[in-house]
Amino acid sequence: MSEAMLKREISLTINGKTHALAVEPRLSLSDMLRDELRLNGTHIGCEHGVCGACSILLDGVPIRSCLMLAVQADGHNITTVEGMCNEDQTPGILQEAFQEAHGMQCGYCTPGMLISAQALLTENNDPCLEEIKEAIGGNLCRCTGYTQIIESIQLAACRMREAD
Amino acid sequence: MKAAKFNYILAESIDQVVEALDKGDGEAIVIAGGQTLMPMLSMRLARPETVIDINKIAELSGIDVAANEIVIKACTRQAEALAAAEVRTRLPLLAKAIAYVGHQQTRNRGTLGGSLSHGDPASEIPLAALAMDAHVCLRSAAGTRQVAMADYFLGPMMTARTDNEVLLSVHFPIPLAGARVGTAFHEVSERRGDFAVVAAAALIHLDANGICTHAALAIGGADSVPLRMTVVEDALRGGKPEPDGIEAALGGIEAALTPGNDQHASAAYRRRVARVLAERALKDAVAEAQK
Amino acid sequence: MNMERNLHYVATKRRVREDKRFVTGQGKYVQDVCLPDTKHAAVLPSPYPRARIVSIDTAVAETLDGVHMVLTGAQLAEDCNPIRLGLKLPKVQWYALAVGMTRYVGEWVAIVVADNAYIAEDALDLIEVDYEPLDPIVDPEQAFEETELLVHPGHGSNVLYHGNFLWGDVDNDFTGADDHLSFRARWGRSSTVPIETFGALARWDEGTEILDIWASIQMPNFVELMAATLGYPLNCIRLHQDVDVGGSYGVKRGIKQSVLVGYLSRKLRVPVRFIEDRLANMAGSDAHGPDRIFDTDVAFDKDGVIKSIKIRALDDAGAYPGRAPFQLAKPISAIVGPYKINSVKYEAISVCTNKSGQVPVRGFGQAPTNYMIETAVDNVARHLGLDRLEVRRRNLIQPDEFPYQIPPGSKYDSGDYPVVLQKGLDLADYDSLLARRDKARSEGRLAGIGIATVLEPGGGNNIFEYLMDPSAEITTFMEGCEVRVDPQGNITGIMGTTTSGQGHETMMATILGEELQFDPDDIRIVHSDSLNALPTRSPIASRMAIMLGSAAAGAAGKIKNRAMAIAAHNLERPVEALEYAGGDISDRNDPRHKLTWAEICFIAYRAYHRLPEGMEPGFQAQYIMQVPGGGQLPDQNNRVQVYPCFSFQAHVPYVEIDPGTGRVSVLDYAIAHDCGTVINPDIVRGMVIGGLAHGIGAALYEKFAYDDDGQFLSATFADYLMPSVHEIPDVKDVEHCTPSPLTSHGQKGSGEGGYLGAPAAIASAVNDALHPLGLNINELPMRMNKIEALINDGQK
Asked: Above 90 in pLDDT, residue A4?
């Protein structure tokens, strides 16, 4: 096996914490998060970039972690659903809103939805319906039919505006 | 769906990239945004010996505005291009096209260079680039060359870029001052964000008297490559575009296309819908230019 | 059941407690279960629709570093039995890996166990299989007639089932009717395709000789089937049912996957895990849904009243049918829909072809059947030039006719169909929709309104199995619930099966809280494992609110009775003289004379001398609920009550079609739903809208496609298209409640209804839009290219 196939050392920040680890080049970012770091909140649904269940924030923007190699995350800043809680580990405004408006059923797409919603609301805490749909358009859900997810995001936006 | 083993090079310079491509002898491949390559690696449809990561090369990212062209470096994220004021105002057809590409997650990582290198006849960025008479800059160990979009697409997923070349940038000409520009991008897909089944990109320049000085109509998804409908364009140029004239100009379009059949659409469907979308795109572009 | 009572917790908005773990990424799905030393499996798919396996060479794969075992079907068949099917078909043999022959593209031929999934897939690349490709049988109508090309040669034909049912005097009704019409309707092969694939983790413990299984499972008899396949005693296997299941809607039955990991774990003496990747799932999970051709004749009078219906249903079960043929029989439960149709002839045929196996899908055959029934009603209206709503109103069962018995014997428990229909129309603002449609039409657009009035049978009852196979005298369809009060007085409810997003924990806590008068948030709900679970039939058949809910109420009743008996004994009063209030029990005439809940708990656990004579110590109760109306075999006319409860929905979507591209846009959707008493409003609303979205997918986009050569064309999410938020309109919904007299609180099922009505409703809308062009489409999914070709007929 050539040198270039061997594990590479990477260092990155995940949910505010620095991680240093050695990964095989072909290891996907989603597998790294789950299997190496036991951050199981990020889910795998298709591994070809359609369902969005694996969505995470990379330097603040949502991406599909199944479509990124772990080695490519070296030096970057990642947020997963586990990092969306408050400092004291209580659910944040968005997570509370999803509970209040029952924006899920089986919970499998939920972390990805939260990530996409978080990115939207960070940039724009008064999104119109079209903007919400654009934000979650790349996240598939088979349980809810999306209505209560949209309502959860609208509720969170409202609460964020009140908090400001 | 886990990738087969490969060597990984995090390139620090363009020189390093072309050297590795050269050495790779066809078994080395560049990864930029990975939105197309990663699924192929995961499904083991692509089994390169070496993957060359170009994401950390600063000169491969960014948008430069020159006097008569806008240069978008290969590794510029689609989201960045879409948000850039200079793209929205000076290259509106490109902005309209990018809005149809996938979803926000894919645009946050996907690059213009990646989309152009892949050469899917149904994808939006190649279609817009073709309609806009762009050209790409390719670099190998032997040097740099330009290839016009008209010469760039050779077949489905086959471009003029050879295995030892890397796409550096795409160059979009800026319209001359005084031109009234209208653009439109129409596509049909079952769901929003999917690859187009058929797409049409139109670009119209009118002079002060409303005469068409430039017309570009490109169709995607209806042949083995995205195609410019030069017969239609020739019919429109030099006259004042009217709906009847547009419809007449489109008369031969179906015969000019050789689409494929698949489970999503028959060749006949693609041919007919290409005409429908072409008409809508041209009419919209003309209307915008006439405003 | 007391329908007049004041409800405190039931029917009130309450957070769904399961959501808390999901929003913080703390859900525990099977892929999250981590056991030390676990090995990972990957499967090798067959590239041929039908082929003889000449040889499999695993030698090189076995030597790869990190590989622990490579197993083929032939090896597995030496130690394992074929998986039991629903019907008795001894020559139709379904093994966890292909044995001797592969019968569909993607069928699993070998399995590799390695240190991780990456290495396992590396090993797959090194397995050499020599196939002898054979001609496949792909078309179900051809499969039905075929005598030579047999999917299972030993079976003698491709027909798995062919049955005829006759209820009432169909011939007479047809000759006596003013008119009749015939049509064909086709339900395309789709499925529920949850975002989480199937996965299983097994650990054989040599010390206790127990096989522990964690799996993403939703089915009854899972452990029984595993045990029978592996040849183990049933109580050798412990299924952990506290695994969160990432969506199922019927399809997560993974017996072959679980058999494989169970077998491998015992062989290797380490935990073995198999998580399907999406490719393995789409082609090879045997999780495709009904694929059905209906040929229907309807007899009716000139005023649109439907007298009789003759149905021939031919369903393509793929190569390995499992329990899929029963999806033809369950709809007998509501085969006339919500209408007063006098007689029914039903011919049901299940065939096998060289495609992935079929599995029970949400509604267990009711969705395609409802699509066919509603198509019949719309066709009658169109034929007579009558309004579709008017024809429905003339045929709907009226509110004063409940319980209403349909020709096959099921009695619909309660309902008020005209009122719910009107609620749906009002919510849709039907007159405005008509104006909107007509304005769009005047502007040259294609626009249509859909109407569907459909039933959702709920509660479950396998008696349909007996209808198809009289040797299967199965009349028990139960659900067990245990309630425990601990020495401190805390209440714990125990359910004996899995949950895949339906909020069972919340539902159960709500009912226990209601009955025992405690805040549901203070009541803990846990899932037992299969070894210590009470009897269960799992969350299928839209049954859990009905069955687990009623069982919980039953168990709570026993707890209350026990408390009352203890109090009566200690307060020296008869039970009738006592008042139960939030766990405290007092003398009605002298309220100071009382026992607190804490005191009752103390007596129950600690003060045996103060227990009534003969009462066992502790404070717990079990209740096993048998399905209401079940428990008997069909009478001599083959009539029997199938499911007990019937929810009803009226769907009113508005669509526009782009005639240039054939693309359908669903722009508006109103739904009125009646599922009796709603235990948790958010859960029910979510189910309704979620099911509706599923139905839009089946109506417009989703199909597991095979070409004429049996090649599989829907291998990924790029080809199998599921609706995103952009494809689902903003849904307006309104509730109505006609409680069921059969359940603890009047609740009926709500998990399926959206899916059981939306495809019919969307088809109705599309055909309404095409009506001005004199066109009609009777096949799902209604993809853009199909509609455009129809509109531009002759230009193919």
From this structure: no
Same domain, C299 and C400: yes
Residue C490 DSSP code: -
Give the amino acid at C504: H
| Alpha helices by DSSP H, C304-365 | none
In terms of domains, do C572 and C656 share one? no
Give the nearest partner residue to C246 out of A42, A91, A106, using CB atoms: A106
Amino acid in the structure at residue C545: A
pLDDT tens for each residue of B57-106: 999 999 999 999 999 999 999 999 999 999 999 999 999 999 999 999 99
CA gap C23, A82 in Å, rounded: 9
Closest CA to C260 of C240, C237, C230, C280: C230
User: What's the whole-model pTM score?
Assistant: 0.97
| Main-chain dihedrals φ then ψ at residue C377, nearest 5 degrees | -65, -45
What six digits make up the tokens of C333? 């439960």
- Residue C277 is nearest to which of B1, B188, B191, comparing CB atoms? B1
Question: Which CATH class, in words, describes the domain spanning A3-83?
Answer: alpha beta
C609: Cβ contacts below 8 Å, ≥ 6 apart: none
CB contact under 8 A, B263 and C714: yes
Residue in C461, C403, C406, C476 with CA at minimum distance from that of residue C742: C403
| pLDDT band with cut points at 50, 70 and 90 for residue B225 | very high
Token pair for C614: 């003969």
Q: Do C513 and C610 lie in a common domain?
A: yes
> What residues make up the domain containing B191?
180-290
Q: Is C159 within the bounds of a domain?
A: no
Q: Please report residues of B whose CB lies closer than 8 A to that of C718.
A: 194-195
For residue B33, the chain A residue with the least C-alpha distance is A68
Q: Are residues B210 and B279 in the same domain?
A: yes
User: How many domains is chain B partitioned into structurally?
Assistant: 3
> Which residue out of C40, C119, C661, C704 would a mutagenesis test of the B interface target, given it has the greatest number of B Cβ atoms within 10 Å?
C661
Going by their DSSP bridges, the two strands C452-458 and C645-657 should be labelled as antiparallel
Question: Residue B2 falls within a domain, yes or no?
Answer: no
**Closest by Cβ to B8, choosing from A1, A55, A71:** A71
Is C8 within the bounds of a domain?
A: no
Q: What is the pLDDT of residue A126?
A: 98
Enumerate the domain spans of chain A: 3-83, 85-163
* CATH code of the domain containing B20: 3.30.43.10
ipTM: 0.97
The helix/strand/coil state of A131 is helix
Chain A, 93 to 152: residues with Cβ < 8 Å from chain B are 116, 119, 134-135, 137-138
Return the exposure string of A68-81: e unless at least 16 CB atoms fall within 10 Å of the residue's CB, then b. Answer: bbbbbbbeeebbbb
User: What is the C-alpha separation between C407 and C167, in angstroms, rounded?
Assistant: 6
CATH of the domain at B253: 3.30.390.50
Domain with B101 in it: what CATH number?
3.30.465.10
**Beta bridge mates, C282:** none
**Homologous superfamily of the A85-163 domain (CATH):** [2Fe-2S]-binding domain (1.10.150.120)
Q: In A, residues 75-94, which contact B (CB 8 Å cutoff)?
A: none
